[in-house]
Sequence to fold (209 residues):
Amino acid sequence: MPGRFMSFTIAIDGPAAAGKGTISRALAKHFGFAHLDTGLLYRAVASKVLEGQDPHCAAQELTPADIVRDTLRTAEVGAAASKVAVLPEVRAALIAFQRSFALRTGGAVLDGRDIGTVICPDAQAKLYVTAAPQVRAKRRLSELLATGAKTDFETVLSDVLARDERDMNRAQAPLVAASDAVTLDTSQLTIEAAIQAAIDVVEQQRDAI
Ligand code: CDP
Fold:
């Protein structure tokens, strides 16, 4: 791939800490595609808003250097990201960049909340990656503790649930599985099994075109 395709887009959506990032990076490596973690766009806008900038200006002026800052993965920035993500003008300012990334020659994997529904409704492959809230909170807790953050399971679980609630119930581009996405529940899967299942789904969707 892309081979007979001009471009090939894999759209991955799902709630916080479901395994989207790990699966998307592995798919990109397997197929030789570029990967965009679109959550970083919202996290980068949020981090500028926490520094006092206007959300719309921050989104319009975002540069590639802003999404590689190493402070974007904190729980504070994650919570702020889901708050700026409800603003229609912020979402609109980020659409063109995501769509042009998706159509790049050589193939692309994008992960986020609205990739299969709003950003790339014509993606050749779509996955909705999910897991039980307790499992997601446990995974996110390990990630945060590994970075030296001081937190506990109850705090992380309530953050995950609050973010699900905001992301699924906002008016604009709410988190929902696209009607043509295949759902992958990773609650009981090892990382290796989840990656293999995702590769199988993408290959089936590709072969069905
Ligand atoms: O890594 P995690 O799943 O915790 O979150 P993320 O993907 O970095 O996204 C952070 C926040 O950005 C989410 O809670 C969403 O509110 C927002 N987001 C969005 O609205 N649309 C996207 N395509 C990606 C993220």
